[in-house]
Design brief:
Number of helices of chain A: 10
Distance between the termini of chain A: 54 Å
Shape of chain B: globular
CATH superfamily of the largest domain in chain A: FAD/NAD(P)-binding domain
Strand content of chain A: 25-35%
Number of domains of chain A: 3
Mean pLDDT of chain A: 96
Structural class of chain B: alpha+beta
Oligomer: heterodimer
Low-confidence stretches of chain A: none
Mean pLDDT of chain B: 91
Largest sheet of chain A: 5 strands, parallel
Number of domains of chain B: 1
CATH class of chain B: Alpha Beta
Strand content of chain B: 15-25%
Structural class of chain A: alpha/beta
Distance between the termini of chain B: 31 Å
Low-confidence stretches of chain B: none
CATH topology of the largest domain in chain A: FAD/NAD(P)-binding domain
Number of strands of chain A: 26
Radius of gyration of chain B: 12 Å
CATH class of the largest domain in chain A: Alpha Beta
Chain lengths: 404, 106
């Protein structure tokens, strides 16, 4: 049988893997299997520029359609992989066909976590994960419409920022005591809470959503702090890794498909990359992590390509993330832990500041708001596992470049 | 369309027709030009799309915003003609522009 790579999933990681396999000289066949009808596209702009209507759908595409043809890659879209046969080295597709592989790469990504509440199945309760979700949501986001967002994570807050600027009446309901509770430090959460409230968002933290009722054309969300009426409800309560295909095939799954530093699962001919993978990372407190980020999708794909062409290089990068809300750019590098010491540099009132996290004196993470020097230098300090005195970090009179 | 000439660090040239409205970064990434990574997809969040703009063209592109300026400060091999290519929007006026890629984006 001739050499072939089958990639299950057609997102950021899959697209990068196709590009990297070819640029690293892989000459075998490549097939990408994607559930959606779209060619691989970028998800980050969905809740930002694309929701605003600033960019056309074709600018979301990571590569133009011709790229896949030119790369000799077969795209099987609107198709699902239903089972892996490890013995026969094939994958079964939703159209009933079987596709053989010499290397299989699972880039299955993640799906939205559904809110298990009475009434949440109403079609006016929406989620935001794909192009089609935004295309359906945007026309309803008209001035004066009442939008209730359940969940104050990145998706919820990014949509809130776009919507309130468009003149919608926006309420955000969050069960945790603060916004971005899972992703940000209390200092950064508090800053974003102030920004959203100042922009006119009715932000309600520490509020439990109990059920959703349909009342004529509208919805009523019953919460622990009263009823929130809404024309549209957007639910953004996190994502779950798509690991079922791997689990059913007997591959090790533990909050993601478990892989080594070369993106290999416990079957050395099967790889997993991107949101669906649980990988070793020396910057994580527990030594392993599952990352929901473009950076990880891209970098892990590059490393998987190197392993597949026989030039393996271990992957161990500082994770990084970003979010755009209003005119604010939040950039995060590294992985913090709740017990880390937090050092704030800059004045929050100036809307440019950073929160550094230190563990036993070593910089583990930086959250930078409109503060590129702090972010860029912070990334270097984290990669170098540098120790910096907290009082130096806090002193903006000392330039970041001198922070070594 | 505007023709943009991309020159790799080793001197290899690529001339690409870029649609106005797209960025110089998008023109490269969509055509598999090596040397521009653009890990963040154009959000001015990563500084991996650094290019040197031919000085004759510098005045014809939009000036740098604060975020681009500070991101560039921390890139490698920055010169007076350095820009982040995700922040250069292509217009008909840029037809014929040349950009060079640095040795590395990291």
């Amino acid at each position: 049988m001739s050499d072939s790579v089958v990639i299950v999933g057609a997102g950021q990681a899959a697209s990068q893997l196709v590009a990297s396999l070819r640029s690293e000289g892989y000459a075998g066949g490549i097939t990408v299997i994607g559930e959606e009808t779209h060619i691989p596209y970028q998800r980050p702009p969905l809740s930002k520029a694309y929701l605003k209507g600033d960019i056309a759908p074709d600018r979301l595409f990571i590569k133009p359609p011709d790229f896949y043809r030119d790369a000799g890659c077969t795209l099987k879209l609107a198709t699902r992989a239903t089972a892996i046969d490890r013995k026969a080295r094939s994958v079964t597709l939703s159209d009933g066909s079987r596709l053989p592989w010499t290397k299989l790469v699972l880039a299955t990504g993640s799906r939205v976590r559904k809110l298990p509440l009475p009434g949440a199945e109403d079609p006016s309760c929406r989620y935001l994960r794909g192009i089609d979700d935004v295309d359906a949501l945007r026309p309803r986001m008209v001035t004066g419409a009442r939008l209730a967002i359940i969940g104050a994570g990145y998706i919820g807050l990014e949509v809130a920022a776009v919507a309130v600027k468009r003149g919608l009446k926006v309420t955000v309901i969050e069960a945790a005591p603060r916004v971005l509770a899972r992703a940000a430090s209390p200092q950064v959460s508090e800053f974003f809470e102030d920004e959203h409230r100042r922009a006119g968002v009715d932000l309600r933290c520490y509020v439990r959503t109990e059920s959703i009722d349909r009342v004529g054309d509208a919805l009523a969300i019953n919460t622990s702090s009263g009823i929130v009426p809404a024309d549209i409800v957007l639910i953004g309560v996190g994502i779950l890794p798509n690991t079922e295909l791997a689990g059913d095939a007997g591959l090790e799954v533990d909050n993601g498909i478990r892989v080594n530093a070369f993106a290999q699962t416990d079957d050395p001919d099967i790889y997993a990359i991107g949101d669906c993978a649980n990988l070793p990372n020396s910057f994580a407190l527990q030594g392993r992590v599952r990352l929901e980020s473009v950076q990880n999708a891209i970098d892990q794909a590059k490393h998987a390509a190197l392993a597949i062409v026989g030039r393996p290089r271990a992957y161990d990068e500082v994770p990084w993330f970003w979010s755009d809300q209003y005119d604010l750019k939040l950039q995060i590098a590294g992985l913090s832990a709740p017990q880390d010491q937090i050092v704030v540099r800059g004045d929050r009132a100036s809307r440019s500041f950073a929160a550094f996290h230190l563990r036993d004196g070593t910089v583990t993470s930086v959250e930078a708001v409109n503060a590129a020097p702090e972010y860029m230098m912070g990334r270097r300090l984290i990669a170098a596992r540098a120790r910096v005195a907290p009082e130096r970090l806090a002193d903006r009179a000392i330039p970041m470049k001198d922070m070594t | 369309m505007a023709k943009i000439k991309y020159i790799e660090h080793d001197g290899k040239e690529h001339v690409i027709d870029v649609q106005p409205g797209m960025t110089v970064m998008e023109g490269a990434v969509r055509n598999m030009i090596p040397g521009i990574d653009a890990d963040c997809g154009g959000a001015c969040a990563c500084a991996t799309c650094h290019v040197y703009v031919d000085s004759a063209w510098l005045g014809k592109i939009q000036p740098m915003q604060e975020m681009e300026k500070t991101m560039l400060d921390f890139a490698e091999g920055v010169e007076a003609t350095s820009r982040l290519s995700c922040q250069i929007q292509v217009t008909e006026a840029l037809d014929g522009m040349t950009v060079r890629m640095p040795k590395s984006q990291h």
